[in-house]
Amino acid sequence: MAMMKKRFEGKVAIVTASTQGIGFSIAERLGLEGASIVISSRKQKNVDEAVEKLKSKGIEVFGVVCHVSNAQHRKNLIDQTIQKYGKINVVVSNAAANPSVDPILETKESILDKLWEINVKASILILQDAAPHLEKGSSVVFISSITAYQPSASMGMYGVTKTALLGLTKALAIEMSPDTRVNTVAPGFVPTHFADFLTKDENVRKEIEQRTLLNRLGTTEDMASATAYLASDDASYITGETLVVAGGMPSRL
Amino acid sequence: MAMMKKRFEGKVAIVTASTQGIGFSIAERLGLEGASIVISSRKQKNVDEAVEKLKSKGIEVFGVVCHVSNAQHRKNLIDQTIQKYGKINVVVSNAAANPSVDPILETKESILDKLWEINVKASILILQDAAPHLEKGSSVVFISSITAYQPSASMGMYGVTKTALLGLTKALAIEMSPDTRVNTVAPGFVPTHFADFLTKDENVRKEIEQRTLLNRLGTTEDMASATAYLASDDASYITGETLVVAGGMPSRL
Amino acid sequence: MAMMKKRFEGKVAIVTASTQGIGFSIAERLGLEGASIVISSRKQKNVDEAVEKLKSKGIEVFGVVCHVSNAQHRKNLIDQTIQKYGKINVVVSNAAANPSVDPILETKESILDKLWEINVKASILILQDAAPHLEKGSSVVFISSITAYQPSASMGMYGVTKTALLGLTKALAIEMSPDTRVNTVAPGFVPTHFADFLTKDENVRKEIEQRTLLNRLGTTEDMASATAYLASDDASYITGETLVVAGGMPSRL
Amino acid sequence: MAMMKKRFEGKVAIVTASTQGIGFSIAERLGLEGASIVISSRKQKNVDEAVEKLKSKGIEVFGVVCHVSNAQHRKNLIDQTIQKYGKINVVVSNAAANPSVDPILETKESILDKLWEINVKASILILQDAAPHLEKGSSVVFISSITAYQPSASMGMYGVTKTALLGLTKALAIEMSPDTRVNTVAPGFVPTHFADFLTKDENVRKEIEQRTLLNRLGTTEDMASATAYLASDDASYITGETLVVAGGMPSRL
């Protein structure tokens, strides 16, 4: 069978919110390309199950319960990673709060805060903990959203926090260069548990599909391959950039 | 003397953080073009002085002390405006926290929160209070920054919150249309008290000037004329857009 | 009646393709704000009629027949302007070829060339002629299109040439700074003769209206006020920028 | 040695201007990942040498002399590809005219035309020839430039044509979907023969390096890996997008 070199042999990758959905596929893809993986999410049961699934595919993997908005959890995630593997090469910050479906002008302050805290601030704080351990040549990948560029009426504030990530990508690319690259994937609509509120309705799903040029929703694997590309040395001249993976939905030039 | 029609006759405009700097110039410009102005900032003394200055130019003006991150203050600002003028036509959300000069990865959580709260959340919450009173044909203008597009190493997190405003502009434009337009001005570097930390140093100032194409820093009046344009009926077909006023510094297509 | 200062007193403005539609409204607006206007288009009859209409509104105006893709015509336009008024302060390059409705991959080479020649190259060549006569503080405005950012299936190649103008704006802003500013207006859909092929069909028009946030097509006056703003000293700190005037249609951050 | 699946087994890829520089590296990368390659450029000698180099690496390759602005050459390139391999899966349109270093306002009409013809029009015309032969699931990749987003004073018009490609990408993505995806790579500065005029001067090269965040110029391999990613099924949910590969030089959000 025709083969090419694995891109993450000898590398250690942390992926947050990775026991299902996009995060799980990213962990799986990086693992299949040779990385040692640290997966995490809020529930021990989910972590355990995901570890088993990845191990069954021959992936070197380690699971830590981590609610990213909890400072002690974040510290523990980094500490255990270092204890286990001794270094960090890739951080994929995938955790996000469930989108609020309320109009922004009807969203409670506590929900505004939660979206900010999980979607933006936690990404920063986890990097504050991880930064001292990042090897030269490391890579950070944020997961934004097509709604960062073209807001959806039904998930306005979620999109605003995802727009913030576009700026964070550029600012941290400056700050962490040249030793660490920082990039972002902006997924279109992917029918995960997370997006159930939209995609479980057949009509809404069809309507979204028709707004793409490729006549389908995204898959978690689509996002995993984009993340793997940006995190790999194939993208070693890319930093501060966002890659839209949205089936041709209107984005930006 | 050759003249054209004033654009804000009979209109009521709230401008936050308007007792000096860009906010003051915006209040002055809207007032000179006929608007009744509600100015505000955190200190009574500053409010009083600004009211006097604007009155001396023949502007109808009313001052309210308002710290935009204080819910009671925000409510009071709107209540007093309605009590005084009975309606709102223009809201210019200009308040911003002082930029943090620390790298993002060395910025304390409390500072991250403060930038979010004043630069983004307060803009939302004040509109939640104002929205029920906005007349048909109203206009909202946010003040972002060139650093929303091209981050500056010395004010990274400030820029991230300003990037968030670009998304907020689009999301609220959807939400508030067609009765209210929502747009944003993204100023370049303006040597106000606010930017003193950069522009008071002659060398830094010169360096910034050279990054512009027009070989000068911006003026508060440059931002005021842009805001007045976007808030006026001259821009009645513009919503969800950001206008960069930065002397030709690198921005976006 | 409440008034403000006219912005183009003592200024001379050339507007191409200005005997009807958006160009005519731009000429009218600049003229009403005090500019001496040079209008032009391909047919003497149209030029004569437009001159009469503008004169009847008290505008100082002068008409020259000019097909912008004709080198002699372009030279003549500039020569006559200088002979008549002695200087140039504003150039609005509005001429555009009729959109091709064919798919790009079915468009003949001659049509591709024509769109390039009129929409992009003529804008450059007319500036090559005009540049030596531009006063310090002059302003150039190109007319692009929302389709520069978000292509329409039915006018693909037209949009591509309009995308080129976004880059031309930036490149010439660099080249002509600091003495001349260069900016662009990107109109949405305006029901002029030019867009008849789209907007004369009631259903297509309604469909386009629904893609805006303001539930209407644009007017030629909307584009004229945007152009006047960018060309005026109100925008004296803006160069290299494009202003989208498209009723909130999807554009860019 | 750890390996992963080759991504272009059984695929046929045409790469224009591929006997040296970026084009050659793209051909090599696609070939090493299993594609049968059709290389081309203007000179038989260069074609022959490149074919030998690629063959020596075990790549299935076929060379055709093709000046992309020659209609007969373009037709011949496609005809010979079909005759040899029977289908087309990937088209990488890499040909570009040498940048003009003159200011746009001092560039002769013939040079403006040449840049348009080679950088934009030839890309369209070659696809008009290739389209009937593209298999379902094909991929087109254009090569634009960082100067499409942020013009360089020394290569203004070159950048304008590269900006046009950003729009062409979106327009053709609409037109060719869902069967063919269309994307673009926007390289930063790569010290090829093509960019010699800039990068052979040590001082200019250092100055460019300092404008990147990664403190180096790009390599042809950086562009090849980006092109391979976009052309592969790893990017099967990406169409109409441009990926900036420029070492963190200012681009866009």
From TrEMBL, chains A, B, C, D:
Molecular function in Gene Ontology: secoisolariciresinol dehydrogenase activity
Classification lineage: Eukaryota, Viridiplantae, Streptophyta, Embryophyta, Tracheophyta
Official protein name in the record: Secoisolariciresinol dehydrogenase
Family (UniProt): Belongs to the short-chain dehydrogenases/reductases (SDR) family.
EC number of this enzyme: 1.1.1.331
Signal peptide coordinates: none
NCBIfam families: PRK07231.1
Gene3D superfamilies from the UniProt entry: NAD(P)-binding Rossmann-like Domain
GO BP, sorted A to Z: lignan biosynthetic process
Species assigned in the record: Papaver somniferum
